[in-house]
Structures are given as structure tokens and as C-alpha cells.
Write a structure and sequence with these properties.
Length: about 200
């Protein structure tokens, strides 16, 4: 069964308070046995704290592991560094797929690798099926809890222009489907689809 249970009331003026509200709301939702699929990474990442350290399949053009962005430690470019700091991720079961974009620091990919993340830059994905990669990912994730975070800018903007941070030379829609289908059988405890911005898609 799939159900839209609406939005969590967020505080547009205070991101830290928003995180607290989301965490509280998610605890109630997940306690019912639901597996959340959200349009907001903060919501999804908060739910991981209910399971202990989880595996992560992160599909994105950007690593999102910056320490600080424009003076702020909480933002769309920093979530996975915060997750590591809070002990939310099982770093040996983290894979980042499709990375290619610029970041707020020069060490984004190296920082990921230093934590034990598997980094699959987009060049490793060009001109091939990702089904073999996903077989490896399933083996890496095993039977323990896994979170899937899919940023729409992982796809090439020629296919998905509706995002605020487009980066050329991205994944194809077929590869995106292979990644999602490749998660079948995993112990998914939550998923998100992020960075979608319809006003940027003038053809849609």
C-alpha cells in the first residue's frame, strides 16, 4: 500500500528547528512500520537515527560532504558529513554514484574515500549498463538497513533540466532506472528524491 500522508510543518525561518520538527514527525511515522519516500533529504536522513548506522546509496552529481557552505554547517551541500559526525552512517556500506559536479571545497571526493565510502564518479558509468554495479552494491549492503537518496541532478540535464544545480555529462534515464531496480531486495528503510525544481524545466 502507498499513501500520501502530507507534509511535516516546517519552520521557514529556522533550519535547525525544522530539523527538530522533522525528526519528531518521522519518529511517529516510522514507528507505525511505514517505509518513507520523501521529497526532502532532511526528513529522510533524520529517520536513519531510528535504525542505528545505516548503509547509504547516494545518487548525485555532488558529494554533499562539505563541512561549511556560506558559513552554515547545515545545508544541501553538507548532509552526509553531518551524518558521519552523528554516527548515522555505516561508512563501509556507503556508495556515491554519478559524482561529477563542483563543490564548496576541493576535497569532497577524497573526504568521502577517507571515510570508507565507495565513490563511483560519472566517468565510470559512461557507455555502460549499471546492472553489474548494482549487483556489487547489493552485495556491499547485505541484509542490514539501507537508505536511498536520489538527487535528480545525477541525471544529465538534457533529460532532467528541472533542478537548480545542473551538471553536464550525467547519467541517462535508463541508468537511473537500473539503479532503482537494482535496489530490489535490499532492506530499504527510507528513500528520497531531491533537488527537483519544476520552474527550471521550461519544456515540462
Amino acid at each position: 500500500m502507498v499513501a500520501d500522508i502530507g507534509d511535516i510543518n516546517v519552520n521557514l525561518y529556522d533550519l535547525k528547528d525544522t530539523c527538530r520538527r522533522i525528526r519528531k514527525g518521522y519518529r511517529k511515522i516510522v514507528a507505525t512500520g511505514c517505509i518513507p519516500l520523501t521529497m526532502d533529504p532532511l526528513q529522510g536522513l533524520c529517520c536513519t537515527s531510528l535504525y542505528g548506522p545505516v548503509g547509504l546509496i547516494h545518487v548525485d552529481a555532488h558529494a554533499d560532504t562539505s563541512d561549511v557552505v556560506l558559513g552554515e554547517k547545515i545545508g544541501h551541500g553538507t548532509p552526509f558529513r553531518r551524518c558521519v559526525e552523528e554516527g548515522l552512517l555505516d561508512c563501509k556500506r556507503v556508495v556515491q554514484i554519478g559524482l561529477r559536479g563542483t563543490g564548496y571545497s576541493p576535497d569532497s571526493y577524497e573526504w568521502s574515500r577517507a571515510q570508507g565510502f565507495r565513490v563511483v564518479q560519472v566517468e565510470e558509468c559512461w557507455f555502460k549498463s549499471l546492472a553489474p554495479l548494482m549487483a556489487e552494491v547489493r552485495a556491499q549492503m547485505g541484509s542490514r538497513p539501507v537508505y536511498l537518496s536520489f538527487d535528480i541532478d545525477a541525471l544529465d540535464p538534457g533529460f532532467a533540466p528541472g533542478t537548480g544545480t545542473p551538471e553536464i555529462a550525467g547519467l541517462t534515464p535508463i541508468q537511473g532506472v537500473e539503479i532503482v531496480r537494482g535496489c530490489r531486495g535490499l532492506n530499504l528503510v527510507g528513500c528520497d528524491l531531491v533537488e527537483v525544481s519544476p520552474p527550471y524545466d521550461t519544456t515540462g
